[in-house]
Amino acid sequence: MPNLEQIKRELKKYNFAYEENVLPVHTNGHYFLYGFYEKGIAIFALRPDWTIEEGALLPWGDVLSLKVKKSLLFENRMDILTPKMNISMKIMKSTGGCSWIKENLKKLENLNYYQNLSFAFGGAEKADDNCAASRAGQKKAQERENTTEIVETIYRKMTEYTAAPMVSFELEEGDAGLFDCKIGGAYYVPEGEHRLENSRTGEELYLLAQVNFAQIPHLPDYPEQGLMQILISSEDMYGCNFEDGYDQTGWCIRYYETLPERAEKSCIREPDWHEDTALPMEREVTYRLKPTEIVQTMPFDDVNFWPAADTCLDSELRGYLENDDVMDGLCDMYEEYMCQVGGYPFFTQSDPRSADDGEILLFQLNSVKDIMWGDSGVANFFIDREALKNRDFSHVMYNWDCY
């Protein structure tokens, strides 16, 4: 998968210097890079591997108006009107495998950054209303408005029916306490218990994440207190058995309902790292987890989306779910969370659950900051709701996938 330097080299081939005013955009499954500079807008069509297929220049003199609209949740929209066409693109905030977007995520999330690309060209009102191209542009604009209304109606009804509370975590750099919510680092083992190992290889497991439920907003059926630890193996698949996600041979999950005020040194474990240690993060990676409670809508890649849609949408609205533009619009409405407890999962491939499993998301960790699951993947941990109520973590499904 190309990285920032590869994209820079691609742009250089077309004599376009890399600057911060290059935006990745897409529409109807086609991807582009838009570059803004003194001559106009350089538009580069991209192949699936993010190499440039061809480029073209749209001079400023041909641009009647340029508007950037902030969407409700996810991707913002850019509309460019010329005498011959009406261009509408979605500005990408995140795409798996594209390092350029990840490195510039903060700027792409800043609406003011987009606004300074909105130039006062004038002349749009003076365009010939009888121009066929103008009429075509108006028709397309009306179609977009209709599609937007349909998308928002579907999203609103799905939200009313499927809204679920969850806790989203922001990853903060710096050391965390032994019993704090965190990613990586040392972990607690009660006095008298053995170190946690891969039962096949005998290798000590490494802490992936832990959640102190007393430090986060309470979710229905989840513990109000206690410490949950997830530990994984240092091997290619990070201890995951893709044939049997419940197999805890190469990983484990522990829950301690009560904790001591302080831990003896003998109760603190931090496994050594070796040359062949393979984990989703490096040894020095430790993040504190800052919790925020959020209400989440079921996304369309959830295994229960279609049964839910059959229940809460009428036949006309369900029919629109076969429309690519509508589904594309729904994609834009959903927020992708980097780390969470509860709510609905995110996948780069497909949901490993069956619709009748009754399993809910216990914990999820996406590829974020210095954490990388394969090629920009995500790890999910699922648990039966009744087992969760009973604080029984012996039958948890572990799965991760990537692009």
Automatic annotation (TrEMBL):
Would you say which domain of life the source belongs to?
Bacteria
What Pfam family is a match for this entry?
Answer: DUF1963
What the entry lists under InterPro entries is as follows: DUF1963, YwqG-like_sf
Q: What is this protein called?
A: Uncharacterized protein conserved in bacteria
This protein's species is Coprococcus catus GD/7
